[in-house]
Design goal:
The chain is of the alpha+beta class. It has helices at about 5-15, 25-30, 35-45, 80-90, 115-125; strands at about 65-75, 95-100, 105-115, 135-140. It is built from 5 helices and 4 strands; from the N terminus they run αααβαββαβ.
Length: about 150
């Protein structure tokens, strides 16, 4: 595992804030040469610390501002049923995140759709069509207090 120094940590923080910064801009902020910044970024990518670069979208202009968290309990927990559920969930574009969790439910899904009607349609035609779902529990987001994609290093 790669040992991160303070410069690597600062570089990662800067990239998480705005990954479109040029190596020249980053070199000025870090007091490094452009080549040194380039080499550090390549090293972080090679080591798998930087997985990929993405564009974060504003949900409102694209009519996807209804967010729900759905807890799912399976009826059976055999490897076959768990793997089938996970395979099917990854195919659903409305599901942004899915976590296998401990506690009363087996999974927590983060779902993003247009509105309540779209959520109902998703639940009836897609989610509950997956075999072996025992029950679900939905929680609707009223307001966003904090949302970040940046991980402190």
């Amino acid at each position: 595992m790669l040992k991160l120094d303070q410069t690597d940590k600062t570089l990662l923080a800067l990239l998480q804030t705005d990954s479109k910064q040029t190596n020249k801009e980053l070199s000025n902020k870090l007091n490094l040469s452009v080549t040194a910044v380039y080499e550090r970024i390549k090293k972080l990518e090679r080591e798998g610390i930087i997985k990929k670069y993405v564009a974060l979208l504003d949900k409102k202009p694209i009519a996807k501002s209804f967010m729900a968290y759905c807890h799912v309990r399976l009826t059976q927990h055999s490897k076959e049923f768990v793997m089938k559920f996970e395979r099917e969930i990854t195919k659903l574009e409305e599901v942004l995140e899915c976590y296998h969790v401990s506690g009363d439910y087996d999974y927590i899904l983060k779902i993003l759709v247009k509105d309540m009607e779209a959520y109902r349609d998703f639940m009836v035609t897609k989610l509950t069509a997956i075999p072996n779902i025992g029950n679900t529990h939905s929680i609707f987001v009223i307001g966003e207090v904090k949302h970040t994609t940046a991980i402190s290093v």
